[in-house]
Design the sequence.
């Protein structure tokens, strides 16, 4: 079997289906993380090293250094992913698919996202506002001390919606399109944006290329995520598909992010909430449009409803991937 086949559909769709199933069942084992780390931590070390060496000088030099750092990051990531794909192919077709699925299962984060968001709801119920603030600080960058209970709940639900897009649907999309290499490249770009794509004096010039490329590669996933949430709402109780669709059409384009508004608006409309809006990061107040026109007073029960919708959307995504794999194989 040529290893090149494992970088194109339908093989990549088969890899994706297995990877999603493995990750949903097992996540990324803590013992493995302690022993070897995680692809994001490996990528993060490379980005940090490139940043130390190239982020210096005048703004123009920093921007050029950021472009060079991104090119080097993507080159290394591609080389490693293609090498792993070629090695997996040596095991034969079936075994190669399984090996690549196990590797690709480290890229989406269905299980860990669910666990982290559920902790916020549980902490609010058992430890009150202080516990909720601590739990939500693990998944959002805003100042937890500025959050009342409703804001803690909104922050958790917003994080669930946005991370469903860039932490699950986006890596799944790029694994399906390009196998392990496609998924690894996406993860490298997304990690670079999270580390250096900030509008601060240190990173505004250096992280410019990473931030712009991250916006581009997340564009299809953000729209697909919104659609998954609308369809999932139609399949679920106590949520509104019409409300989700209405909020997307009215509010998604008003968000300061070109992508985050789509899943957040869909989630807000489905749950009958208002999400996003003005927020405080550190000591800085960020003005943003509200997504949805429902209640701003979210509560722990709303987090539970959001998680149920999220699980339905994950199951729907898996079903679509399996069906697409079958259709592709039948047509071929």
Sequence:
């Amino acid at each position: 079997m040529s290893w090149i086949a494992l970088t194109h559909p339908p093989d990549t769709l088969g890899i994706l289906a297995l990877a999603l199933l493995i990750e949903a069942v097992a996540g990324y084992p803590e013992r493995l993380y302690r022993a070897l780390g995680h692809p994001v931590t490996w990528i993060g070390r490379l980005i940090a090293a490139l940043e130390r060496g190239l982020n210096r000088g005048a703004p123009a030099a920093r921007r050029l250094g950021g472009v060079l750092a991104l090119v080097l990051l993507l080159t290394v990531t591609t080389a490693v992913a293609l090498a792993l794909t070629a090695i997996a192919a040596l095991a034969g077709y079936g075994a190669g698919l399984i090996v690549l699925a196990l590797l690709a299962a480290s890229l989406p984060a269905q299980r860990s996202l669910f666990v982290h968001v559920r902790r916020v709801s549980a902490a609010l119920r058992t430890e009150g506002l202080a516990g909720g603030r601590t739990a939500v600080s693990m998944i959002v960058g805003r100042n937890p001390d500025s959050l009342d209970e409703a804001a803690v709940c909104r922050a958790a639900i917003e994080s669930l919606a946005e991370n469903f897009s860039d932490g699950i649907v986006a890596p799944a999309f790029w694994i399906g399109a390009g196998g392990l290499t496609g998924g690894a490249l996406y993860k490298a770009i997304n990690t670079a944006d999270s580390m250096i794509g900030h509008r601060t004096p240190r990173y505004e010039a250096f992280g410019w290329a990473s931030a712009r490329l991250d916006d581009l590669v997340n564009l299809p996933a953000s729209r697909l995520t919104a659609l998954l949430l609308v369809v999932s709402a139609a399949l679920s109780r106590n949520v509104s598909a019409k409300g989700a669709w209405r909020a997307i059409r009215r509010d998604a384009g008003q968000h300061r992010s070109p992508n985050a508004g789509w899943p957040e608006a869909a989630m807000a409309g489905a749950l009958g909430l208002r999400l996003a809006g003005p927020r405080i990061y550190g000591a800085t107040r960020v003005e943003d449009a509200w997504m949805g026109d429902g209640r701003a007073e979210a509560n722990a029960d709303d987090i539970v409803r959001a998680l149920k919708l999220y699980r339905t959307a994950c199951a729907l995504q898996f079903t679509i991937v399996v069906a697409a794999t079958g259709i592709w194989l039948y047509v071929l």
Observations:
- The mean pLDDT is 94.
- The first helix runs from residue 11 to 26.
- The two ends are 17 Å apart (CA to CA).
- The chain is about 70% helix and 5% strand.
